[in-house]
Amino acid sequence: MVANALQANVLLSPNLDQYGSLHNELHDVTGMAHDPSGDNNEMIAPMAMLASGVRDTLFYRLHLHMDDLYEEYKVAYLQPYQTTDLQWQDVSINSLSVRSDVTKTLNELHTYWQETDLDLSLGLAFTPTGRAYGRFRHLQHEPFSYDIQVVNKGLQEVRAYVRIFLITVTDENGQPLDLDYQQHFAIEMDRFDATLEPGLNNIQRESTATPLTVDQDAIYSTQATFWDARRVNQCRCGWPQTLLVPRGNEAGITYKLFAMVTDYLQDKTPAYGWVFCGVPGSDYYPDKRAMGFPFDRAFRPDVKTLDDFLTDNMKVQDIVVKFNDSRVDPSSALLPGEVSTSWMP
């Protein structure tokens, strides 16, 4: 209801005349502020267009404002989760760890710079002989895998939803964050279902399997190979896979890796959904829990530390993210059969 009022359209708003369309109108107002009535025939700014809004730094401040409004509503009107809302009877997590697939380091992830060549020919109205490429530098990380030991104390097989977050515990100056800020800066890393046999279960999960990201081959594939990309989703939602892990620094920044298992039968939806886009034709995103669960509401008054919040079906592990200020060059962008390639800085 709140989302339909703030990001409103004619079909979803509970009362369009009363609530207006704050999010959409802010985009229009900021994107046309230089010529609001169109008298000077000025081009509209990127903020007024869906495809280009992210080019304007104001885009991110606007969306933070929307997040703040949701947060104010939740604090004022939604009760914190009680222990009974979070726990799962007879299921517990024994251990949680993460391991780099490259260096094999335990509970230590590594990031670095990578350069990638992007074929610009499909987006240009004119090209020189051959294809036109743009080379740009972006953050990259070593692929890694999660290892989770889960105990099913019941006598029958059950299905679980596994939810993984990375929690920021210090600010940019290395000072500890208050617990409320840790909640706000919990980064969802993965969400998937798993089968739990009675007894001890070892769950291994590759970082590249997360439904929160779009693969490199889906983002940078050419038109001819686009539909052959390994995991192209129908709405192309999600972060680029390269931005799944925060950069860290050369000394290493400590984060808390958080995992939680919940009852799949209780949370499941009629169809599979992409985490950022939800289930097509459904009200779920992509399960019956709220987006960001269990960090979408304020903590209970008795929760003073993250450990106070944990139930048996949760686990936390300290990990370190280290940044190497090095660069990996791309392989040649010259495609088979191409004679010449024009490079753009």
From TrEMBL:
GO biological processes = melanin metabolic process
Tell me the GO molecular function terms: metal ion binding; tyrosinase activity
Domain Hemocyanin middle, by residue range, is 2-70
Q: Which UniProt keywords apply?
A: Copper, Metal-binding, Monooxygenase, Oxidoreductase
Cite the Hemocyanin C-terminal domain residue spans from the record.
80-323
* Xref: SUPFAM superfamilies: Di-copper centre-containing domain (SSF48056), E set domains (SSF81296)
| InterPro entries registered for this protein in UniProt | Di-copper_centre_dom_sf (IPR008922), Hemocyanin/hexamerin (IPR013788), Hemocyanin/hexamerin_mid_dom (IPR000896), Hemocyanin_C (IPR005203), Hemocyanin_C_sf (IPR037020), Ig_E-set (IPR014756)
The record's Pfam families line, in alphabetical order, gives: Hemocyanin_C (PF03723), Hemocyanin_M (PF00372)
Cofactors that this protein relies on: Cu(2+)
Does the keyword Transmembrane helix belong to this entry? Answer: no
The organism sits in which domain of life?
Eukaryota
What's this protein's family per the entry? Belongs to the tyrosinase family.
Write down the PANTHER family for this protein, in alphabetical order.
LARVAL STORAGE PROTEIN/PHENOLOXIDASE (PTHR11511), PHENOLOXIDASE 2-RELATED (PTHR11511:SF4)
Instruction: Give the protein's recorded name.
Output: Phenoloxidase 3
Which species is listed as the source?
A: Frankliniella fusca
